[in-house]
Automatic annotation (TrEMBL):
NCBIfam families found in the cross-reference section: NrdG, PRK11121.1
CDD domains the record matches: Radical_SAM
Keyword Metal-binding attached: yes
Function text: Activation of anaerobic ribonucleoside-triphosphate reductase under anaerobic conditions by generation of an organic free radical, using S-adenosylmethionine and reduced flavodoxin as cosubstrates to produce 5'-deoxy-adenosine.
InterPro entries in the cross-refs: Aldolase_TIM, NrdG, Organic_radical-activating, Radical_activat_CS, rSAM, rSAM_sf
Cofactor: [4Fe-4S] cluster
Protein name, entry field: Anaerobic ribonucleoside-triphosphate reductase-activating protein
Species the sequence originates in: Pantoea dispersa
Record field: catalytic activity: glycyl-[protein] + reduced [flavodoxin] + S-adenosyl-L-methionine = glycin-2-yl radical-[protein] + semiquinone [flavodoxin] + 5'-deoxyadenosine + L-methionine + H(+)
Compositionally biased spans, kind Basic and acidic residues: 162-188
Name of the encoding gene: nrdG
Enzyme Commission code: 1.97.1.-
SUPFAM superfamilies: Radical SAM enzymes
Amino acid sequence: MMHIHRYYDVDIVNGPGTRCTLFVAGCEHQCRGCYNQSTWRPDSGVPFTLAMEEQLIADLQDQRIPRQGLSLSGGDPLHPHNVPHIRRLVKRVRRDCPDKDIWLWTGYTLAELTAAQREVIAEIDVLIDGRFIEAEKDARLLWRGSRNQTIWYLRQPQSEDAEQHAADGHAAEGDPQRARRERVMQHQ
Ligand code: SF4
């Protein structure tokens, strides 16, 4: 069973718009300067129960507080222990909440993902990848902690995302290589 540390049913900090955000347990990257060391063990936190999953789906479908989507962070949602659980969850969100976007933060880079991890990525909209590197830390970055991390728009961005993408100077302008990679991914 997958464990989690926190669930926010209304979150405006982790990703664009109003979102549901799940912080899962389990991370093997051991980044220096990690502010989330308590999440490293996959058995830390509390079990993610079916009742919690049902609540998450109900929150995403809640019309009273419209959510733009789901953010998955941690810990690392793509820790091998979490992959089958996260894959099942994102498939369910796609099926039951087709108008919601899914953002996922991982310490692995896109290039080093295994086949099983890529099955998860196939279901999401946006991936923010790479370990946190203290020497490349930059508080001005949007959605990222350090400059080595990349925002991959894996599906056609919605207009609001596109604006935020453009507002993120480091992703769109400061690093032509990175901007090019992002364009390539958008067009796949
Ligand atoms: S990937 Fe994130 S949670 Fe994992 S060690 Fe690095 S900073 Fe911490």
